[in-house]
Amino acid sequence: MYFILTFTFNCLQIVNPPKDLKKPRGKKCFFVKFFGTEDHAWIKVEQLKPYHLHKEEMIKINKGKRFQQAVDAVEEFLRKTKGKDQASSHNSSEEKNRRNSSEERGKQSAGEEKRKASLSEGKLKKGTGEGKKRVSSVSSERGSKSPLKRTQDQSPRKRGRPPKDEKDLTIPESSTVKRVMTGTVAGFKWPPSVSEPVKDSDPHFHPFLLSQTEKETGSTSIQAADSTAVNGSITPTDKKIGFLGLGLMGSGIVSNLLKMGHTVTVWNRTAEKCDLFIQEGARLGRTPAEVVSTCDITFACVSDPKAAKDLVLGPSGVLQGIRPGKCYVDMSTVDADTVTELAQVIVSRGGRFLEAPVSGNQQLSNDGMLVILAAGDRGLYEDCSSCFQAMGKTSFFLGEVGNAAKMMLIVNMVQGSFMATIAEGLTLAQVTGQSQQTLLDILNQGQLASIFLDQKCQNILQGNFKPDFYLKYIQKDLRLAIALGDSVNHPTPMAAAANEVYKRAKALDQSDNDMSAVYRAYIH
């Protein structure tokens, strides 16, 4: 049975995880090896589709050269495997024919012996009773050995056992796969065991398709399919990691760094937020300067440009702990001017700098499925590889400092504008007498269907605005994106209109609610 992984495209096969590698908590998934490489990852079961049923559909959707190469690789492997199976089948047939021929000769030989025995018995009938007894004993002895001999002949080749030349292809089925068969993919027909006849599928090989989101551009990316991904032989870096800022995003990031075995020292403006991570094995830093001075690579994730500058330039700030070789990675969503200024002061002290804002929300941060946009020191980007794999599903390197900030603002501008449009549509449906739930059902069946759309609409329908992405932060990003457009004389009327709606929502005291609370700006 072959599958397609729904969110990316590449080839995978199921393998048993290392004994010391723990399965992600609360996830129905199994361990796989990237086909053609030594990369490994935990993959969620619900992200799979049957390969043969969806291959053509995915080929139409994805025209990328890399995806086609992945499909070609799978098909080539299947052809080779089929050839081996046919050869094994041919060898098995020949062996069966030889065995049948041998059995036939054995039957003929047995028949000849029986005929001779009958003649002898006829002669012995004329002899004494003692002779009868002796012949009877010999006949009984022969009869008792015959079934045993047949059993011994058959034992080396039990029915359904793979030929010897297939042993090198066998990959033990993961126990995790067996556990999840009653879950999301219970309706799939999983590969039969080796004791069952194999029809159209190879029981030893389970290919999947994973996409490399890198296009034909100058950017590069490090891909990790899940928060516990192990990229080949890469293990958690032995460098000491620092982390400043334990907000909605930072908390999930630190948790995943610790789960992956990194040594992490944490600091937060509100010290109580550090307690949970200390219990999980993190160390406590008293000031940003102390964290930077005691760690090799220090990450920071704070709310806005002012907070980012204060963290670096303020009393006992990052800059005081920087000395040659120290590394600083700013994951905050800020404008390009701010991040450029921070890079300059860090580098002026002999430090190394990387900007790495993240796209996602609290849930994606907790799940280790963020998208990381990085720019600056390329060597530092590579040094952060295991950290980025722990916290995200994909990371992009976008070149010089400032590029990641610009890209992140554009991404959030699109997201914020879309959220405002969703709220506007739901309120228009309500005032025109249409069912908001029906509107959501229709959208979920169309081209706009997405997890983001469904979750935010559910927030609105249920009146649940618990923050997953603060409204005040998306409004900040819209404001910065508009300023970015102004700096290059590029109009952003849609973003400007959405920004005004978020400003009204903030005036209605919705700043600390989820961005979906922008809906309330339309009903008040």
TrEMBL record:
One of its GO terms (cellular component) is chromatin. Residues 80-133, 150-170 have a biased composition (Basic and acidic residues). SUPFAM superfamilies: 6-phosphogluconate dehydrogenase C-terminal domain-like, NAD(P)-binding Rossmann-fold domains, Tudor/PWWP/MBT. Its main location: nucleus. It holds the Pfam family NAD_binding_2. Residues 17-76 form the PWWP domain. It is found in: Chromosome. Residues 240-399 form the 6-phosphogluconate dehydrogenase NADP-binding domain. One of its GO terms (molecular function) is NAD binding. It comes from the Eukaryota. Keywords: Chromosome. Residues 402-522 form the 3-hydroxyisobutyrate dehydrogenase-like NAD-binding domain. Residues 80-178 are annotated as: Disordered. GO terms for biological process: transcription elongation-coupled chromatin remodeling. Belongs to the HIBADH-related family. NP60 subfamily. PANTHER family: CYTOKINE-LIKE NUCLEAR FACTOR N-PAC, OXIDOREDUCTASE GLYR1-RELATED. This is Cytokine-like nuclear factor N-PAC. The lineage of its organism: Eukaryota, Metazoa, Chordata, Craniata, Vertebrata.
